[in-house]
Amino acid sequence: MSAQKHLVNDPATLVVDSLKGLVALNPYIKFDEAQRGECFLFFQIPFLLYALSPGVQWTGRVEIEQTDVSVIYRTPTSPHVAILSGGGSGHEPAHAGFVGEGFLDAAVCGNVFASPNVAQIRRGIHHVTGEEGALLVVKNYTGDALHFGLAAEQHKSAGLPGDVRVVMVGDDVAVGREQGAIVGRRGLAGTILVYKIAAALSSTGASLDSVESIAKYISTRLATLGVGLEHCHVPGTRSSEAHLGPEEVELGMGIHNEPGTSRISLPTVSKLIDTMLSKITDTTDPDRSFVPFNGKGDEVVLMVNCLGGISELEMGGITQEAISWLKDKNIKVKRVFSGTYMTSLNMPGFSLTLLLLPKEGEEYGAEEILKLLDAPANAPGWRWTSGKEPGEMSEKEIHVEVKKGEEVIVAPENSEEFLAAIIRACKSLIEAEPELTKQDQIAGDGDAGLTLEAGAKGVLKAIEEGKLKGENVVEDIGVIAEVVEEEMGGTSGALYSIFFAGLGTSLRSSKTTTTSPTLWAQAAEEALKTLYKYTRARPPSRTLVDPLETFITSLSTSSLSKAAEAALESAEKTKELVAKAGRGAYVNQEELKKRMVPDPGAWGVWRIVDGLRGYQV
């Protein structure tokens, strides 16, 4: 379910508040809000007369009623065709975030998911349009089409300087021709590429005819498909129930919270990308084939757009999968853009857009379009781009030779039992993952279970591959230290790796050839001293050192089983402790005590030593 809490003063003023923040961030743009003034406009009857009889001319000077005019614009540094866009708010950074040098000259912003009114749009046109004219690049939605179209017609009929034209962009491929016969394709994230290219061409001093022509051409070469894990929530509206089941995703999502065209079970990213790009590039279904993809040999621009609620971490994986899929299909990706361009508020979803580049002999050249995409632009919403084809993963491994120290063979008392104990400890951690994760969701950042599970699986894999043999404990402990460092990562990985490295050092320096309970107890004490060089945590601290120190201290005077029992008792006590170290130190301590959960790191130590001793309690 999407987040339904928002940080606002008043939902009614959210759009204006946000635009004021944008202007505060960017001193190169201006904000026109709630203006009163004069302009030329049509009343309804004269406008209808004009529409029916183009030869009839009528203009009148009247006072505009006060209204919330939300226009972000910049002062042109040189004469050029002005590029304007706009629509409902809630799609940030589109559209206001793309006002800047080499991009939009103005953006007209309506309320959330609502088209701006004609007065607002006329105001935007007025601010930036000179003799060179203006091009309104607008997403294909009924309200936007009517309002932007009417504003353009009113500007022209009023005899004001500069011709004003409109290009409606429809890049959605979720809805077929038959279903969308009247309304046409919806305008989605591909619209950003249209006005980037149009603005770059305009910056060269090109005519309105040329700018309009390339904008229309690019619009015909775009295909976009969105997917959502859930719908978004509009600030100021009541909370809603989840639209989708926990294992469902919705294909064909728009940007106004409308339902998608189909629902599927939640797949892996690779399968989801395969489904989406297959639909985008498929030309076998004439009802849904909008762009003339030919398959092998096509060159494309890829845009991976976050719809508001997908993490940067996930976006990276999505982008890589999309590039890999296209490469596997022999479709060459000439440029890739990935980030947050056109959202649906906080929707947990993303869209994929392909711009099919022209082949040789067509109206425009591929290099010409790429040059316009690569042209410098200074707008807050436009993310860094390389201006090159996506990089290739390195296929060569860099080998660093590490010299081994003096070999010391310290054999375990029983090699089979030694390996069996390690395997039990690993399996105990893997089984504990759900409870550790639940504990850490309350007391930390939620990753403790997965982190320890990854380390345990890494050790088991090392045993399967013969890297950990059970013949020389010094070498085996060294392997465990390396595995947990690589597989676990983070603070836990470092702490465990330091401890095991210290354990190996102590065993190496013992000058013995066979282990014993006494030797293990002494080595563990030395390893704990090594660990304490690098962490300030000391019992009682509500961290993993609480049961670890208890277990090691008990080993010197009691059996492994009794030492494990002592570790359990210490881990249980962390429920009542105030966290003095680790992530728990940053959590509300009173709330933590009420929840009565043990520290997940401490509980992980208990599960390890419980596995070592060979049975559960």
TrEMBL record:
Supply one GO BP term: anaerobic glycerol catabolic process
Catalytic site positions:
256
Gene3D superfamilies, per this entry? Answer: 1.25.40.340, Dihydroxyacetone kinase, domain 1, Dihydroxyacetone kinase, domain 2
Annotated residues for binding of substrate: 88-91, 139, 144
Q: Which domain of life is it from?
A: Eukaryota
- A Pfam family that this protein carries is Dak2
Keywords from the UniProt entry: ATP-binding, Glycerol metabolism, Kinase, Nucleotide-binding, Transferase
Q: Which residues form the DhaL domain?
A: 416-614
Q: Which GO terms describe its molecular function?
A: ATP binding; glycerone kinase activity; triokinase activity
SMART domains xref list: Dak2
- Similarity section: Belongs to the dihydroxyacetone kinase (DAK) family.
What the entry lists under PANTHER family is as follows:
DIHYDROXYACETONE KINASE 1, TRIOKINASE/FMN CYCLASE
Q: What is this protein called?
A: Dihydroxyacetone kinase
Originating species: Tremella mesenterica (Jelly fungus)
